[in-house]
Design goal:
Helix content is 15%, strand content 47%. The protein is mainly beta and 107 residues long.
């Protein structure tokens, strides 16, 4: 099962994934925390997403329909090949509406 997630920051995302029990928090040599997915979970951290300009040809001229923008929130996709509990699913920062054309997907 794939989930598209969004939080304000990467730190918030790591906290949410940790609270859902989908990552293990480890401490590196410099006492820095880092997170690794548990078995059965794949994580694709995307970060912010740039939306391109939407341009169409109108009467032979290029016309800007919608200007581009940047969504600075933190985006992450996860693929889960294990059974999640209702509590784990509820802890995930999913959002709606889901994009009709996701920025990135698992192959």
């Amino acid at each position: 099962m794939d989930y598209l997630l969004r939080t304000t920051t990467k730190e918030d995302m790591n906290t949410a994934l940790n609270n859902a029990g989908l990552v293990s928090e480890l401490t590196g040599l410099n006492e820095e925390s880092f997170f690794i997915p548990i078995d059965g979970v794949s994580i694709d951290h995307i970060g912010s997403i740039a939306q391109p300009d939407i341009i169409e040809v109108v009467n032979g001229e290029l016309t800007l329909i919608t200007p581009g923008s940047i969504d600075n929130r933190w985006h992450t996709n996860i693929r889960v090949n294990i059974e999640l509990t209702e509590e784990q699913i509820a802890a995930l920062p999913t959002f709606e509406p889901l994009p009709t054309i996701p920025y990135r997907v698992f192959a």
